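Quick log. Single chain, no ligands specified.
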Amino acid sequence: NLINRCLNNIIDNALKYGNKIEIKLNKKNTNLFITIDDDGPGIPAGERSSVFQPFYRLEASRNMSTGGSGLGLAVVQQLSAAHGWQIEIGESDRGGAAFHWRYVGENQNR
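-> predicted structure:
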């Protein structure tokens, strides 16, 4: 399932850059929320929207051993939007990144 692929990508990134992650799932009325927090270095506020662009990497070298291709989060954002999810990045209470997903419905995102 494509949403599982998105979750796995974010969790893999959180484990790659941090030591601890916390996953929260909340439902309020018909809204579903998923938050993934980590204790890694985080994503600077000025770069949070850029990480969803294809081939964008926070780690500036082209060394594949220090980072991926820069496609993972771009794929996550596109698949999420196609299936009715909005995704945002914030600062985690743990000090790293916090990925916030909100299900808005497939018809509302097109």
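Residues 2-17 form the longest helix (16 residues).
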